[in-house]
Design goal:
Blueprint (H helix, E strand, L loop, with lengths): L2 H8 L5 E5 L5 E4 L1 H11 L15 H15 L4 E8 L5 E11 L8 E8 L1 H12 L1 H8 L5 E6 L4 E4 L1 H7 L3 H4 L13 H11 L5 E10 L2 E13 L5 E10 L1 H12 L1 H8 L5 E6 L9 H6 L3 H5 L4 H4 L2 H17 L4 E9 L5 E12 L4 E9 L1 H9 L4 H10 L3 E6 L4 E5 L1 H7 L5 H5 L5 H9 L5 H10 L9 E6 L5 E10 L5 E10 L1 H11 L1 H10 L3 E5 L5 E4 L1 H7 L3 H4 L10 H6 L4 H5 L4 E8 L5 E10 L5 E7 L4 H4 L8 H13 L4 H12 L1 H4 L5 H40 L6 H34 L9 H25 L1 E3 H15 L3 E7 L5 E3 L2 H20 L8 E10 L2 E8 L6 H4 L17 H11 L3 E4 L7 E8 L2
Parallel strand pairs: 26-28
Antiparallel strand pairs: 1-2, 1-5, 3-4, 4-5, 6-7, 6-10, 8-9, 9-10, 11-14, 12-13, 13-14, 15-16, 15-19, 17-18, 18-19, 20-21, 20-24, 22-23, 23-24, 25-27, 28-29, 29-31, 30-31
Helix pairs in contact: 28-31, 28-33, 29-31, 29-33, 31-32, 32-33, 34-35, 35-37
């Protein structure tokens, strides 16, 4: 097998797969294996290195044994344990498969590893919580028991004790074989041996000797493994079927009644063997074309069974009679019809004793179609496992005659979100009808899916079809189906192929809306740049060209970072990587124009759904002070103004309200009675289209801008109640508005295609809910900003100064102000803390300094300067030492000893946070004087 073939099969598989040679060295490994081993061990594997170095010592010999079997041409499945560098133990199920071309010796083996650590940990946790397990199953109505690997009973619940008619103590530590009926001992022993082999699960119907007499039990057993992958015990879940067996035996004995019942089923024939005048049901005519009266007078089996199969049937029948086990003899063989045709039948034979002697009762069932399919379909298990795990498509094959699931791969389960059922599929425990109902529960249009499934579930429907299915989790699946026939045109089953096309649909939708998006950005009043994830410009609008003086052709292909003024770029790096990570970044920068001059701009950049970066740029006044302010710390003032303007503006919440009102009355527009009504409806639809355009072009960008600014502010804020409310409202606002934008674009496109709104009311309720969410969030944000981040400075001064004056009457506070009824952008609690810091510092300075003045005095002056309030805070204390003046706002800088000096640092950072400025008046010689500038609301 050449390396190209190997790479096609396993090169891109999302599981560990390696090819090793006779010396246990790597010959090939896929990309996933390389990355996986590097991640957990830090080692980069190379071709020619020993594979055994990855295994723990106790697993080496186990693997070598499997390796030798594989080189002899036998696929082997084993469990291995890996010890990673982080001391974590990982468990894997390994498939060791020989690789060789036809008629050539095995030169390499393929090792495919599938991690089962989670399963092992679950089993370990179950063992560690033994007492809880016992309490859970104690009152279970089913029979539950556990034995060790030597068949000694270690646990039995109440239902098990009641079934056996003994106490729990009488069962524990007894060998389970002691209770088995002697005739069933051999069968039970074989079943126990079978549990020790894959798949380590089996069921049995067996007789037990109890204190109530002989009883029948249907039991399912499963092996449980320890950490080393060895069997530690067997768990048994059973139910009492004694009455069922009695009923069935009685039914067998009433052969004529059973024959009458089976006559209603055309594909089933009942017969008797081993007695004179044996019965045969009339359905033999429908199935094989023979007269039942003639057949019942002779030994008919040699006449109807194909000669080659008859010898095998007789041999198996004689061995079964001698062994007297199991209870039924089941085998398939070919029968000859009266017209010479041949069909396959399933034969089930059981022993009957009616008091007059022993004879045998049998049932024939037509299984021709199932056999045809099995003959035409041969799956190589090792290759199929590789295909199933590496394929991105889901496969599903069903025989619609029998409702049997013939094949399903794990990707099919992953696409539907029903991976937990994969084991049941492999054990053929689920029918196609069950799967159809299961899958329909994950679909938005459930009734439509079931209707289509029923239409194509008839075997005679030969149509191949393709459709798309939308799931409630937001994914979209493409489904293709066709009939599978053999070379003779005979029906084998229906084949389904599923593919996840969610990303493809999104891409197609993006392409479809590209023209509309291009028109929007061209008409935008702001400059817009579209870049790839490497910062290369791939599109700009006219406004961007106007600001920078370049043509579109000159800007296309240039890195947007190259347009930034180099000294600014060296001082503060351009955070383009954050936009690639999905964050919205806000920056102020100088950009270079074509003529060599500079333009100062503010930019917001974010990731679009199509993995491109959109940067919106506004030309701003050249303000050196703003350039030196930490990004996000000077936005409270502008944010409050923007949110209030948005709340009360004509193009904001009013637009959302009108959209909601229109959709709530949409039924009126869908039922025009006359020509006049039609004309009025068309006018209203046109107005509604303008509303949608207004939201997408004007309102939504404003919402995004507000949300981005608020997000930057809240990023470093403490998680207290007021900030949490803002954070939650902001998250809900941007989430609702983004979904709303997409819904309105879809609605707008539908209106343009259909020239009307008929049939669009399905999503109207969702759109109304989204608009209401957006309105509610804006109101919450506005209220919190107005209530929590604005303060009446006079009111705060009055409270704080009054408190300090009453506690320190030897200090005089002189306060002058012309700022009555003015509010500043500042949280009242933080403003109170700020003023308290200055007053406390002055009082402490007075305590350690005796002034020549008769009175210690603090002067506070508050005055308005355009859109700011200037607060002057002075005392006649000792002043600050020269050595501290340049670093007084640093943390821990103080004249009062260790663990002090944090007040002024906190005050300075808080003032900056709200866009203000704080400085020491170095010309003041009578003590200490601070000047603080704050923004007016």
């Amino acid at each position: 097998m050449n390396e190209d073939t190997i790479y096609k099969l396993t090169g891109k598989a999302a599981y560990i797969n390696v090819i090793i040679d006779r010396n246990f060295c790597f010959h090939f490994f896929n990309e996933f294996t390389f990355n996986y081993i590097k991640k957990y061990t830090g080692h980069e594997i190379r071709k020619g290195e020993p594979f055994l170095n990855l295994l723990t010592p106790k697993n080496v010999e186990k693997f070598k044994s499997a390796f030798e079997k594989a080189f002899k041409g036998n696929p082997v499945k084993i469990e291995l344990t890996f010890a990673m560098d982080n001391s974590e133990t990982l468990f894997y199920e390994a498939f060791v498969t020989p690789l060789a071309e036809e008629d050539t010796p095995v030169m390499y083996v393929s090792v495919s590893l599938f991690e089962i650590t989670g399963l092992k940990k679950t089993i370990k946790e179950l063992e560690e919580t033994e007492e809880r397990y016992k309490s859970l199953v104690k009152l279970h109505t089913n029979i539950i028991a556990r034995t060790n690997k030597d068949s000694i009973i270690t646990y039995a619940n109440d239902a098990c004790c009641e079934f056996m008619g003994v106490s729990n103590a009488e069962l524990l530590q007894k060998n389970v074989l002691n209770f088995i009926h002697p005739d069933d001992l051999s069968l039970m022993s074989d079943k126990i041996k079978g549990l020790k082999q894959p798949p380590h699960r089996d069921d049995i119907e067996i007789r037990l000797i109890t204190n109530h007499g002989i009883k029948w039990l249907h039991a399912e057993g499963v092996a449980v493994f320890d950490e080393d992958g060895n069997i530690s015990e067997f768990q048994i879940l059973g139910r009492d079927i004694t009455e069922t067996k009695k009923s069935f035996q009685e039914l067998i004995n009433t052969r004529y009644r059973l024959g009458a019942i089976l006559n209603n089923f055309s594909g089933i024939v009942l017969y008797e063997l081993g007695r004179d005048g044996g019965f045969i049901s009339s359905n033999v005519t429908n199935l094989l074309g023979y007269d039942p009266v003639k057949l019942s007078k002779e030994n008919f089996l040699p006449h109807i069974i194909f000669s080659e199969d008859y010898e095998i049937f007789i041999k198996n029948f004689e061995e079964w009679k001698k062994a007297n086990e199991p209870e039924y003899l089941q085998q398939n063989f070919r029968c000859i019809k009266s017209d010479g045709g041949i069909i396959w039948v399933e034969n089930i034979l059981t022993k009957v004793n009616d008091g007059q002697g022993v004879y045998y009762c049998g049932v024939l069932r037509d299984i021709s179609k199932r056999i045809e399919f099995q003959e035409k379909t041969f799956w190589n298990e090792s290759l199929l496992r590789i295909m199933a795990h590496s394929a991105k498509l889901g496969y599903y094959v069903v025989n619609l005659y029998s409702d049997e699931i013939l094949y399903v791969n794990e990707m099919f389960c992953d696409l539907w979100g029903i991976t937990d059922y994969y084991t049941s599929f492999s054990l053929q425990k689920l029918s196609n009808t069950h799967v159809r109902e299961l899958c329909s529960s994950f679909i938005i249009e459930k009734e439509k899916f079931i209707e289509a499934s029923m239409r194509y579930s008839r075997p005679e429907n030969q149509i191949s079809f393709e459709d798309e299915v939308e799931l409630i989790n937001g994914r979209t699946l493409r489904r293709f189906s066709s009939i599978l026939n053999d070379s003779n045109g005979k029906y084998l089953g229906r084949f389904f192929l599923l593919e996840d096309i969610t990303d493809k649909k999104l891409y197609e939708k993006t392409l479809k809306s590209h023209q509309n998006y291009q028109m929007i950005i061209e008409e935008a009043v702001d400059a817009i740049f579209i870049c790839d994830t490497n910062s290369v410009i791939i599109n700009v609008n006219n406004k961007a060209c106007e600001i920078l003086g370049f043509s579109k052709k000159e800007l296309t292909g240039v890195s947007i970072i190259d347009l930034v003024y180099e000294p600014e770029l060296a001082k503060t790096p351009f955070k383009f990587a954050e936009a690639v990570e999905g964050k919205t970044i806000i920056l102020k920068r100088y950009l270079k124009r074509k003529n060599g001059s500079l333009v100062f701009v503010e930019s917001h950049a974010k990731m679009l759904p199509n993995n491109l970066i959109q940067a919106i740029i506004w030309e701003r006044k050249d303000d050196a002070i703003n350039l030196n302010v930490e990004p996000g710390r000077d936005t409270f003032y502008s944010l409050i103004s923007k949110v209030k303007a948005f709340k009360h503006g004509e193009s904001s919440l009013m637009c959302l309200n009108r959209i909601s009102l229109f959709l709530l009355n949409i039924n009126y527009l869908e039922t025009p009675d006359d020509l006049q009504s039609v004309e009025n409806r068309n006018k209203l639809v046109a107005r509604f289209e303008l509303l949608l355009t207004e939201f997408n072009i004007t309102v939504y960008p404003q919402i995004e801008f507000i949300s981005a600014q608020l997000n930057v502010i809240l990023k470093d804020m403490p998680r207290i109640t007021v900030y949490n409310e803002l954070f939650k409202a902001n998250e809900k606002l941007i989430s609702s508005s983004r979904v709303l934008k997409n819904r309105l674009i879809e609605l707008q496109e539908s209106i343009r295609r259909n020239r009307g709104i008929s049939g669009l009311t399905v999503k109207s309720g969702e759109i109304v809910e989204l608009t209401r969410n957006s309105i509610s969030c804006i109101k919450i944000i506005t209220r919190n900003l107005e209530e929590s981040f604005t303060s009446d400075i006079e009111e705060v001064f009055k409270v704080v100064c009054g408190k300090f004056e009453s506690a320190n009457q030897e200090v005089k506070i002189n306060r002058t102000s012309n700022c009555e009824d003015l509010k500043i952008v500042f949280n009242s609690a933080e403003l109170t803390e700020l003023l308290s810091i200055f007053l406390k510092n002055s009082y402490e300075a007075f305590e350690s300094y005796r002034s020549n003045n008769s009175v210690n005095q603090i002067d506070i002056k508050c005055s308005r300067d355009n859109d700011t309030i200037v607060l002057e805070f002075a005392d006649n204390g000792p002043g600050l030492p020269e050595r501290l003046k340049k670093q007084m706002f640093g943390r821990g800088i103080s004249t009062k000893g260790e663990h002090r000096g944090f007040g002024l640092s906190y005050a300075n950072n808080t003032v900056k946070k709200y866009g203000g400025k704080m400085q020491l008046d170095s010309t003041y010689i009578n003590g200490t004087k601070f000047i603080i500038t704050l923004n007016v609301v």
